[in-house]
Amino acid sequence: MTPYLHPGSPQQQMFNDAHAKTRNVIERAFGVLKRRFHVLHGEVRMKPGKVTKIILACVVLHNLAKAWGEREAFPEEEDPQPPPLVQLEGNPDGQAIRDAITANYFR
């Protein structure tokens, strides 16, 4: 799902703000996992079902390591700057879903 390139209302701007914050959290989580588990660097050339299991195993092992007080190999990086907005030729259904989310959750 993409943000609005030119938000035309306060609700669309709120959607964009929430989208950017959420994307930042997700990218940081992937960064933490990639620093801890080298298998996640680059392209994982396996069937999607197997990749899903590998990622799940990495998340479980990461959570266990945190629970047991293991330190990360590298400290967390500073918050990355969000990438510039690029308007993609998206699926009209996806745009309708984005508009519905905006209308229902950002009043």
From TrEMBL:
<dbReference type="GO" id="GO:0046872">
    <property type="term" value="F:metal ion binding"/>
</dbReference>
<dbReference type="InterPro" id="IPR027806">
    <property type="entry name" value="HARBI1_dom"/>
</dbReference>
<keyword id="KW-0479">Metal-binding</keyword>
<protein>
    <recommendedName>
        <fullName>DDE Tnp4 domain-containing protein</fullName>
    </recommendedName>
</protein>
<dbReference type="Pfam" id="PF13359">
    <property type="entry name" value="DDE_Tnp_4"/>
</dbReference>
<feature type="region of interest" description="Disordered">
    <location>
        <begin position="72"/>
        <end position="93"/>
    </location>
</feature>
<feature type="domain" description="DDE Tnp4">
    <location>
        <begin position="9"/>
        <end position="63"/>
    </location>
</feature>
